[in-house]
Specification:
The structure holds two protein chains of two kinds.
Chain A (H helix, E strand, L loop, with lengths): L9 H6 L22 H7 L4 H22 L22 H4 L4 H4 L23 H15 L4 E7 L8 H11 L9 E9 L11 E9 L11 E5 L26 E4 L12 E7 L11 E7 L13 E7 L5 H4 L5 E5 L6 H18 L2 H8 L1 H4 L3 E6 L4 H12 L1
Parallel strand pairs in A: 1-2, 2-3, 3-4, 4-5, 5-6, 6-7, 7-8
Antiparallel strand pairs in A: 8-10, 9-10
Helix pairs in contact in A: 6-7, 9-10
Chain B lengths: L5 H4 L10 H4 L12 H8 L9 H5 L6 H9 L3 H11 L3 H7 L6 H4 L11 H14 L15 E5 L3 H12 L3 E5 L8 H4 L8 H14 L2 E3 L10 H7 L2 E4 L5 E2 L12 E3 H12 L14 E4 L3 H12 L5 E4 L11 H9 L3 E3 L2 E9 L2 E15 L5 E5 L5 E4 L2 E4 L3 E2 L36 E3 L2 H4 L4 H18 L3
Helix pairs in contact in B: 3-5, 3-9, 5-6, 5-9, 6-9, 7-9, 10-18, 14-15, 15-16
Classes of the chains: A alpha/beta, B alpha/beta.
Chain lengths: ~400, ~475
């Protein structure tokens, strides 16, 4: 009646086999669409690209047929044409009393547009800091020469790093500049989405703190955050970044010397992170990557987690009540056969301490023989410990 | 919490079936009832789809995933309560519904994993709840003082009465038969539905406050006008009783019967009701037709110790309209099938059947409903010797003579016009009279009759403003 844009979500998915069961969060999709279960994916998924192509072909064809029968040649000419609608009589006497006229009223004023002609809503944040960064750093990207640059940031500077990642990806691909990284050192409080879609070859180092969505959709590179110089609080008791960090990340590394908010690593499929604590719903729906938590987690850790794994430091034995038991299990790493895991974990913490200077991380390293007994390895029930080691060795290679 | 991947680990298992050699010796149900551990195991296979296709497909829209979960958890009373929220006769539907065409046919798991055994669990829930002493709790129902006459104690009438009594309206159910149930009691053979199930249900309904007036035929024993005068509304659920015939010579011969007469006389004979018993003992029987009623006839004949029992059907096995499961059961019990045979003439001597002339057919172009048309092959006639021929070609509406006197309008096929989509659902042309089930939609399933009886009751409640 007035819609001027539309989206397709479920319908094309149904065209390729989805039965709209609404159990996508359980990993048991019997059609093999929304699951990490290999049996279901290999043996029960019937989808083909052509099915989706056919669906859109038919949608377009039927749309054309309808438009032709209405004598309309352009889709835009249909917007707001409520005069083309016919009102059904209704099945009951009450339905037939419904008055649709206010809903279907058209305003006959040809001086006013029938649909939105404003190009877009201008955001409050003009992105000036981000543009300054591009101006300063672009030559280093173009020449693939790397380098270190320093800035102050405020919490109104949103999506810092994204412009640079875009320029990198445009020229060298997502990971093409990993060998000659640009390091951006920042001080202050970063606005939302620091390091969003971060490309390989961009290292962000922030002294201060960050808002929500750090490393959202991150593909590569590294983000390191440590408390501002001169702070007196303990980093492992203080929040350093907001909610939903690493949402949908596919690669890269995030080190944060402090606590992360809720939903750290939600839908993460390949990023590595070390933090000193997380809020509720950590690693939710995670399908890949490794999250190391050097302290407490909130409730519902690992809900819907079907891939990747995590290490959690559980000093006061509370983690068993915090994690979601549906799809994951927890294992100690202090036995002989878990040597590889201890080794891997220690290496990650060393990297983390080097990047952030975390005192808490250093304390753990100094007492690693004792502390390693208090870590849990958290993994999907369906994954064997051996398969996790494969991931580790692949990464080493 | 159940096992969310149970469907990957455990296959569908139907209830155990008695050996055919044993079951043809008795008029008893052939499937064993699940126990709690089998119920838990099988119910746990349900994916609990957010969009439960089983529930949509079910004519009464049972809350299937929900009561599967309750059954799995052993919460049988809660499951029975929930099951009765949408269905008036769940233990009967669990036994006689063609689940493979309804809920289980729509089950997401059907195509790749085997559907959940919904029917068997449904039956288990109510049977077990009754065993545990459960009965519907009507203590919170406030009587409205209104009364409704229900004509016909079949599935439609019983379902209507069930909804009415739960809403404080007194139903008085009239039926011409000596027991409630209609075809549930007298039509469906005991190897599919034991009659104790129906009489148990009668006891439950009577305790709920439903009154039954049996052996009473409306129009003969009592006039409809009397019912209209004494009640606030009338519901008719009288079924379809006109048997379709073959339209071939010899149908009037001694030894030719329509399916329903045969089936009814058998149940009545078993329960010592007065009847002209039709026995197939020692006879060679040919049953014409390929639906579930035809299977009922063949298998009843086997149990009556008939000689040879044939079933002749004019299309092939794949195109039979009845349940595959029933055809399989009939084969196991010794029924012989003559596929692609169309009856031409029933032959006889001295007024008695001696055989049936069949012509072989081949399947041709699809008809308007998409099924292949059987075309006779010239010169392929054969005579199959028979002492009895049973015609199971389905049923046509059987409108009563008095419908006209009360402005009850019929459509061109003789069905009562009582649309669902109107202000008072299933109201007939006479505002005080409602109708549902086979007499409105033409002969159909037990569960569709239940669905219509319930919806008609909702229409009556609206009409009575309660």
């Amino acid at each position: 009646m007035g819609a001027e844009s539309f989206g397709f979500g479920t319908a094309p998915m149904i065209a390729m086999g989805c039965k709209y069961l609404r159990i996508c969060h359980l990993n048991t999709c019997a059609m093999g669409v929304a699951t990490q279960n290999n049996v279901l994916r290999m043996n029960h998924f019937i989808g083909k690209v052509e099915m989706v192509m056919n669906y859109f072909k038919f949608v377009a064809e039927e749309t054309r047929e309808w438009m032709a029968s209405l004598g309309v040649s352009k889709l835009e000419d249909l917007i707001g044409r409520t005069d083309l609608l016919e009102i059904l009589e209704g099945k009951t006497s009450r339905q037939s009393q419904l008055d649709f006229s206010p809903l279907l009223k058209t305003i006959d004023d040809s001086s006013k547009p029938k649909f939105c002609i404003e190009p877009k809503n201008a955001p409050f944040d003009k992105g000036e800091t981000a543009e300054q960064m591009v101006a300063d750093i672009l030559p280093a990207i173009e020449n693939k020469s790397g380098g270190t640059f320093t800035y102050e940031v405020k919490n109104t500077d949103r999506s810092i790093g994204a412009r640079l990642s875009g320029e990198i990806a445009l020229r060298h691909g997502n990971l093409g500049m990993s060998d000659t990284p640009v390091t951006v050192k920042m001080k202050g409080s970063a606005g939302q989405s620091l390091g969003v879609w971060n490309a390989g070859g961009l290292h962000l180092e922030l002294e201060g703190d960050a808002n929500d969505y750090v490393g959202k959709g991150m593909a590569g590179g590294r983000i390191a955050i440590n408390p501002a110089c001169g702070t007196t609080f303990k980093s492992n008791e203080t929040t350093i970044m907001g909610n939903t960090c690493l949402y949908g990340a596919t690669g890269g590394t995030l080190f944060a010397a402090g606590l992360a908010g809720e939903r750290l690593g939600v839908r993460n499929s390949g990023a590595y992170a070390v933090v000193e604590g997380v809020g509720d719903h950590g690693c939710e729906y995670m399908t890949g990557g490794v999250i190391t938590v050097l302290g407490q987690t909130g409730l519902n850790f690992g809900a819907g987690m079907t891939g990747g794994f995590a290490y959690v430091l559980d000093q006061d034995n509370q983690f068993v009540d915090c994690y979601n038991h549906e799809l994951i299990d927890i294992n100690r790493i202090n036995s002989e056969k878990m040597e590889a895991h201890r080794h891997y974990l220690k290496g990650k913490i060393e990297e983390f301490v080097q990047a952030t200077g975390s005192e808490w991380g250093q304390y753990i390293l100094d007492n690693f023989a004792d502390m390693s007994g208090k870590f849990w390895l958290v993994k999907p029930k369906a994954a064997s410990i051996d398969s996790l080691l494969d991931i580790l060795s692949n990464e080493a290679a | 919490m159940g096992n969310i991947d149970q469907f990957l680990k455990v296959d569908r298992k139907d209830p155990n079936k008695k050996e055919s050699g044993e079951r043809i010796k008795e008029y008893k149900e052939i499937y064993e009832i699940f126990d709690q551990s089998r119920t838990t195991e099988q119910a746990d296979r349900c994916l609990d789809c957010g969009n439960p296709y089983c529930e949509w497909k079910c004519p009464v829209h049972n809350y299937i995933p929900h009561w599967l979960r309750l059954a799995r958890e052993g919460k049988i009373i809660e499951a029975a309560e929930l099951s009765h929220r949408t269905n008036s006769l769940p233990e009967i539907c669990g036994r006689v519904c063609p689940q493979d065409r309804l809920c289980e046919g729509a089950c997401t798991l059907k195509s790749d994993f085997g559907a959940v055994t919904i029917g068997s669990v449904e039956r288990y829930i109510t049977d077990t709840a009754f065993e545990q002493g459960w009965k519907p709790d009507l203590s919170a129902v406030k009587a409205t003082g209104k009364k409704v006459a229900v004509i016909g104690a079949g599935p439609a009438g019983l379902a209507c009465a069930d909804v009415l009594v739960r809403n404080g309206v007194k139903p008085i159910v009239y039926d011409k038969h000596p027991e409630i149930g209609g075809l549930l009691m007298f039509g469906i053979p005991e190897f599919k539905l034991e009659k104790g199930v129906v009489t148990k249900r009668r006891q439950v309904f009577e305790e709920m406050g439903v009154e039954f007036v049996l052996n009473t035929s409306v129009g003969t024993d009592i006039d409809l006008q009397e019912l209209l005068d004494q009640h606030d509304a009338v519901f008719m659920g009288m079924g379809t009783y006109n048997s379709m015939t073959a339209g071939i010579p010899g149908e009037d011969l001694d030894g030719v019967h329509v399916a329903l007469d045969f089936l009814i006389s058998n149940v009545k004979n078993c329960y010592d009701y007065e009847t002209d018993f039709i026995s197939m003992e020692g006879k060679n029987v040919v049953v014409l037709g390929g639906g579930d009623t035809a299977m009922d006839c063949t298998r009843t004949s086997i149990r009556q110790k008939a000689g040879q029992v044939f079933c002749a059907y004019r299309r092939d096995e794949a195109n039979m309209p009845g349940s595959k499961k029933e055809v399989q059961n009939a084969k196991e019990e010794g029924v012989q099938f003559l596929w692609n045979r169309q009856p031409v003439e029933i032959v006889g001597e001295n007024g008695k059947v001696t055989g049936i002339k069949l012509i072989t057919t081949q399947l041709g172009e699809p008809d308007e409903r998409g099924r292949s048309r059987p075309e006779p092959i010239e010169g392929s006639e054969e005579i199959v010797p028979a002492d009895a021929v049973l015609i199971a070609f389905g049923f046509r509406p059987s409108p009563a003579k008095w419908f006209n006197d009360f402005d009850i309008a019929l459509d061109e096929r003789g069905r009562v016009i009582a649309p669902a989509e109107q202000e008072f659902t299933y109201q007939t042309n006479n505002p005080k009279i409602f109708a549902g089930g086979d007499m409105v939609r033409g002969s159909d399933l037990v569960v569709t009759a239940i669905a219509e009886g319930r919806q008609a009751a909702a229409g009556i409640l609206d009409y009575l403003d309660v």
